[in-house]
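WARN no homologs supplied; continuing
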Amino acid sequence: MDTTLEQPARARLIIAENQELPVPAILRYDSTDPLAVCVDFPPEVSLDGQGVTWTFARALLEEGLRGPAGGGDVHIWPCGRSATVVEFHSPYGLALLQFDTPALRSFLLRTYAVVGAGQEDLGQAVEQGLSALFGSV
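OK structure emitted
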């Protein structure tokens, strides 16, 4: 059975030293893509007025809760005991957001309750990836 988890999260967009803006976000996990997690942002906070979804490895989130992680478009690192910074890079620039660590940790644990670490059905994930890549070729 396919399961989707969604959890609202408090995020703060860091705009300058000691200046932040609250940003609504939804953390999302779908068991049909067991290796990934998503962060959804509503249209009112995007540059083009459309909702934005960032998808990255669930393992990256786990690693970033313990120490600096990431080497591509998403970087994650702890900031003290109660905050975690997520940095998103795009062709238009970067966004630096701070999340409450307990909320991220709770979400991550919920994802592992749905699909345990090492229990991911990679055959289905590979099939979906190939279908998306090649379409109906």
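The CA atoms of residues 82 and 101 lie 5 Å apart.
OK
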